[in-house]
Each structure stands twice: as structure tokens, then as C-alpha cells.
Specification:
Order of helices and strands: HHHHHHEEEEEEEE
Number of helices: 6
Structural class: alpha+beta
Strand content: 15-25%
Shape: elongated
Largest sheet: 5 strands, antiparallel
Length: about 200
């Protein structure tokens, strides 16, 4: 196989990989932020790039009336390669995070595999403000308030937790805030279960 030498060949090769790479990266920011190793995603980059560039090429034919191949329309190349792919990736990432397409398809009894790899990623991607009760592997329990100042690790190998406000729960099940600002860090793999406790009525935190 002859090596790629000319600038035209290089731009053509990159054009069928870079849009897909950008789309995958931007989409991941709406989900877990994780991207698989590039060597495992080359076919995905290529497939996404083909779909994306086909849609763009059809749109440009309609808008500009030009039938020239997309890679020859240099005035469109950079915006399409960079900004258009970013926008496209953001749109499909937002769709995956909100489950819009999944909800529509469920109405006609069509079920898609979930965009998230685990229930952990799905729940904490929405980062709900909630009272939570954690049961640790040693049987001890930690009560706290989960909000935007808390953190739940999304790395499958290091799912540590930081709770920004710790509560104490008495024998009657009443939650008490005794030390304002008391927080806790829990190392990865120490959590057995997490209960999400409904907010008491009239309590706005």
C-alpha cells in the first residue's frame, strides 16, 4: 500500500477521521467524560465521519448549489471540520444525556440500549440534589447532602465519593445538621449501597 504523501491525501484521510473523533469527544462530555483508547475507536470515528460529512455535503449542495466534493470546498472545510463537528457532537451528547430519542421510541415499543454503561453513571450524571444514606462494606452508615459541591467519581476503577455536608440520623430516623460544613471523603469501592432520601416537605435546604 502506497504511503499517504500529498497534502490532498492527508486532508482527505484526516477529514474521514477527525470529525468522528471530535464528535465522540464532545458527546462523552455530556455522559461520563470518558473516551475509549483511540485504537479501539478508529472504525467508530470513520463511521461517524462518513455519516456527518454525508449530511453536511447534502446540506451544502442544497444551500450553495456546488457539486464539488466536500474536501475541495476549502472555504467550508475548517468550519465544518471543527465547529460543525463540535455542535453535532454536543447535540447528540445532549440527546443521549436527556434520553429524548429513547423516550420517543419507547412510545412505539422500540427500546434502545442505554447510553450509559452503568446505573452509577446514569444517576450521578444528573447529580440530583438529595439527601443520601450510604451503607459501607463494613456495615457502617453515612448520611449526607448531595449537591453541586459534592463529587462522585465516574472512573469505574476509582469511584470515590465526596459528600459536602454530613448529617446525623437519630434512632427515630430524624436527620440533624449538627456541624455546618462538615464533609466526608469515602475511598473507592467502600460503598455497598446508596439510598436517595426524599426531601421533607417544607425543607428547602
Amino acid at each position: 500500500m502506497d504511503p499517504v504523501k500529498s497534502p490532498e491525501q492527508i486532508s482527505l484521510v484526516l477529514g474521514y477521521l477527525v470529525p468522528g473523533l471530535i464528535i465522540i469527544y464532545v458527546r462523552a462530555q455530556f455522559l461520563t467524560g470518558r473516551v475509549a483508547p483511540h485504537k479501539d475507536l478508529l472504525l467508530t470515528y470513520f463511521t461517524l465521519s462518513i455519516i456527518y460529512l454525508t449530511l453536511i455535503d447534502a446540506g451544502l449542495v442544497i444551500l450553495s448549489g456546488s457539486n464539488a466534493p466536500l474536501h475541495e470546498q476549502t472555504r467550508y472545510w475548517l468550519p465544518i471540520l471543527l465547529f460543525g463537528a463540535i455542535i453535532f457532537g454536543g447535540l447528540i451528547g445532549l440527546n443521549a444525556a436527556t434520553g429524548t430519542t429513547r423516550r420517543w421510541l419507547r412510545r412505539i415499543k422500540v427500546y434502545l440500549p442505554h447510553a450509559f454503561d452503568s446505573a452509577w453513571d446514569w444517576k450521578f450524571s444528573r447529580f440530583p440534589e438529595s439527601l443520601i444514606m450510604l451503607t459501607l462494606k463494613d456495615g457502617s452508615r453515612v448520611a449526607g447532602w448531595c449537591d453541586g459541591n459534592s463529587f462522585m467519581g465516574s472512573d469505574p476503577k476509582d469511584r470515590d465519593i465526596y459528600i459536602s455536608q454530613v448529617y446525623e440520623v437519630d434512632a427515630a430516623g430524624t436527620w440533624h445538621l449538627k456541624t455546618v460544613g462538615k464533609s466526608i471523603y469515602i475511598a473507592a469501592n467502600e460503598v455497598r449501597t446508596i439510598e436517595f432520601v426524599p426531601m421533607p416537605k417544607g425543607d428547602d435546604r
